[in-house]
From TrEMBL:
PANTHER family: SMALL-CONDUCTANCE MECHANOSENSITIVE CHANNEL. It holds the Pfam family MS_channel_1st_1. It comes from the Bacteria. Residues 105-170 form the Mechanosensitive ion channel MscS domain. Residues 178-259 form the Mechanosensitive ion channel MscS C-terminal domain. The keyword Cell membrane applies. It is found in: Cell membrane. Belongs to the MscS (TC 1.A.23) family. GO terms for molecular function: mechanosensitive monoatomic ion channel activity. Keywords: Cell membrane, Membrane, Transmembrane, Transmembrane helix. The lineage of its organism: Bacteria, Pseudomonadati, Bacteroidota, Flavobacteriia, Flavobacteriales. This is Mechanosensitive ion channel. The chain crosses the membrane at residues 20-39, 59-81, 87-116.
Amino acid sequence: MEKEVEKYSWIIDEIIKYGMKIGIAIFIIVAGFWLGSWLKGVIRKRMIKRNLDPSIREFALPVIDVVFKILVLLTAVNTVGIEITSFAAIMAGLAAGVGLSLQGSLSNLAGGLLIIMFKPFKVGDFIEALGNSGTVESISILYTTIVTVNQQVVILPNSSLLNNPIMNYSVKPTRRLDIKIGISYSDDVEKTQKILKDMLENDPYIIKDQPITVEVLEFADSSVNLAVRAFVKREDYWDAYFKLYKQTKTVLDKNGISIPFPQTEMRIIQPTNESPQ
């Protein structure tokens, strides 16, 4: 009877011992994750206060969060009594298997690191890539998020971004405004050039120390097409674009210069009633 009591007493002691360890491990995980969230918020505030580049901030914070959580989990595992070296070997094997199945994600991670290092663009830049154009909202570990001019959110994989051409409109302080305008073949080209050049030189959006061009671009089917080009400040581009298109039409109408439109001429040939000889 005493042997039976001793046997069950040992089992109960082991259950209590491991139960306490598991309870402590759970407490470490809960407290550690809460502490990690708090530290993440503190680090974010410090980064903002020091005016750290938003691209680096949005990329680094998730990495710091993941690393801290891994450390918390390793501490909890060690508390239970599992050797960290053995656990690390198991995790390394799992990581290798997961890595093979997530090669695309790993290439996105590498792409994100290279974007942060070489900075082909940053948060707030207006870019065109992979057939999409918009303002960069965030650069995360795996993806870059842009917001288009019509407020659509587009999520682009970092690896695809890095391996394809990127047009960054925010690097230079100015942008060239291009207007293609057609006039009739009967209109005076030199007069039209002077009118349009005067319009550009008197417009406040146009940068006067940059080239202003009004030249013949091509001879189309029903019009002589002119290339009207001038430089504006980057932030004024769309305002200047819409204003000058409207102003061009007004100025040409005022000076009696027509903008032709395509016309189709149809000829109807009546059949003759004469019979062949």
